[in-house]
Design a protein that fits this description.
Two copies of one chain form a homodimer.
Chain A lengths: L4 H8 L5 E2 L12 H11 L15 H13 L9 E5 H12 L4 E6 L3 H9 L3 E8 L2 E2 L1 H11 L1 E4 L13 H13 L3 E5 L22 E6 L10 E5 L2 H15 L4 H11 L2 H29 L3 E3 L7 E6 L6 H10 L2 E2 L1 E2 L12 E5 L5 H14 L1
Helix pairs in contact in A: 2-9, 4-5, 4-8, 6-7, 10-12
């Protein structure tokens, strides 16, 4: 197995490089003083430093469950398994479904695809359209596999948001074949206008819903979770405790303390949403000005902007090598396809760069064409 | 796969139960104020909250490497991969050696055995004697497998410490067949009298050496590591970054800050060594007084005391069910054998109980016989 292109790039580039490549949240927006304050309140207590149970500490699971319940998705702490980032959640599921066939979107999240390969899941790609997967293709693929991995909100890499109709259609197909949906939703809270209901909400016993604090709060706590029915959580727990016994206890206690004041988190979410929206609109505008030959949809949330050159002969994988020399980098979209077919598409991250860097970076790319 | 008996017990028992079961370090000895002080120094810095590289932060890898180098085992940061506890280190290796045959000690560490099963490694058990594995049996097993997992210092569960002769013999066999040793050493720093050299030290290119801060400092940081040659570390890194991208960043920065003052950590280690030694000797003495029919070796370090009843017909798995009713618990040793054969052996943890609880607990066990 090869390493992820993105991880390799993140290590190879220097501080002068303008990076549209990673999925790094904006460091300026981290609520460092609130997190420090929460830390101060818990770090005297010896129990915070001891082994914890593998499911995750009760206080944190309760708070996550409460957030779902308040949105109309009835959830208790028994439905939640804390994981070491959402990445581990995906790994646990890949291990659980080892050797199975799975339907995924194409393009899809690189980290998930690598894990599926590592655990020998055979992927079948279904074309992603502007409002979600092509439903006919999806049903054809799903009926033979009964297992799918989808990212309905502000998808990584494509920034696609599923329409209500497509959410309902996917839901009906999962029910019809009594299959399983893995719904990955690290970006759901990062909407610019409105939040859509989770697909899992209508099929709570046929779904695993993944969440994370990495994109909404800070990544280094390494806290994500899986929401599923209690029996499924018990099965996953066996794998979780084999992999790392439990996720970082200190992170869990800091988070639980921070979340006690729910308004604080809500205010913080609003700050990121406003900031990311402004950045997304600016990025989109600059693209239209500087690279009008690059066609894209303006994102409705999340961290990415996706599109392709009108001239389909442009190979963005070849182009990025040139861009690297000029100190600008993005992720060429061939990485997000099962067979890594060359194409003219690009995923841009817009959250990690300043307005000035966005303009400069796009001009540098233009100069490489 | 079933859940670990120990994890199930830890969840099932209540606060009144005297537990000799877990591997919990003594909470009273956690250097909470020093860890809080280190935290305060780093928690204002936004970079501490961002994604880090998968290998682990440079400062921490350097400090771990330096400790080995100071002991005469030349090591650089490139030889170190930070993991989410030593448990994840083992998982990564089990994934790396998926489907292979492996020689292990019998009895052996339950967490490792579960991971090997989960990743389809076929285990062959070699009898553990008072000074390490039976060398003839070991060579017979190893020559066909070329892969072994050993815990030479204060083994879990048996508390066995390998003699210099057996360390050398194992080392020669690994070299002779150009095989691989996985040397697990979470307890090496918890010696009562002296530290023995790692077996890996003599075969640095044929070994993976595992370390952890969970037993020597605090478990909830979830920081362990693998020491190996640079090429091996690169191979493992691909698996590591698939599982959780990286270990908790905040934990890593707290640790790196705490370890800057090396004397502080050394003083802390001396405190635990002295305390654990006193507890071990007391536990051993009380066993001789209260349960003279239970034969055991006094441990030379670590956290466990191991032995068996003279009356081999006593099934300690059946006995523990009775003990649970009387609110005392230990781990019956059948758990530590590949085929879970019934036997009269027990693993006691002595670090988590008070002197009073040790005496009371042993009397309760006596009353169940």
């Amino acid at each position: 197995m090869k390493r992820s292109f993105i991880r390799e790039i993140l290590e190879a580039i220097d501080e002068e490089t303008i990076s549209f490549a990673g999925g790094l949240p904006s460091q300026n927006l981290f609520p460092t003083s609130d997190l420090k304050e929460a830390s101060l309140k818990i770090l005297d207590n010896p129990k915070v430093y001891q082994y914890t149970i593998s499911n995750g500490i009760e206080e944190l699971r309760e708070q996550i469950a409460l957030r779902y319940t308040n949105e109309g998705f009835a959830t208790t702490k028994e439905n939640i398994l804390i994981t070491t980032g959402s990445q581990q959640a995906m790994y646990i599921l890949a291990k659980f479904f080892e050797n199975k066939d799975i339907t995924i979107e194409e393009p899809s999240y690189l980290g998930a695809m690598n894990i599926f390969r590592l655990n020998n899941l055979k992927m079948d790609g279904v074309k992603l359209e502007d409002d979600g997967v092509n439903i006919e293709e999806f049903e054809n693929s799903f009926k033979n596999r009964k297992l799918t991995y989808l990212i309905p909100d502000f998808q990584n890499p494509s920034a696609t948001t599923y329409s209500s109709e497509k959410r309902e259609a996917v839901c009906n197909i999962v029910k019809k074949y009594d299959g399983i949906l893995i719904e990955d939703s690290p970006y759901s809270e990062l909407f610019f206008e409105k939040k859509m209901p989770y697909i899992s909400q209508a099929i709570p016993n046929n779904s695993f819903l993944l969440g994370s604090f990495s994109k909404t709060l800070v990544p280094s706590l390494r806290i994500g979770w899986i929401r599923a029915d209690e029996e499924k959580i018990k099965s996953l727990l066996i794998i979780k405790e084999s992999i790392d016994l439990h996720s970082c206890g200190i992170s869990q206690y800091i988070l639980a303390e921070y979340l006690k004041d729910n308004d604080k988190y809500e205010r913080h979410l609003q700050v990121i949403r406003d900031d990311y929206k402004e950045k997304a609109l600016y990025f989109s505008k600059q693209l239209n000005l500087i690279l009008p030959e690059f066609k894209h949809q303006t994102p409705k949330g999340g961290m990415f902007l996706y599109g392709g050159f009108e001239d389909k002969k442009i190979d963005t994988f070849a182009l990025v090598q040139e861009c690297l020399k000029k100190k600008v980098v993005y992720v060429p979209a061939n990485q997000f396809y099962i067979d890594k077919v060359p194409n003219s598409e690009i995923r841009f991250n817009y959250t990690h760069s300043s307005f000035k860097q966005i303009e400069e970076g796009l001009k540098l790319i233009k100069s490489c064409l």
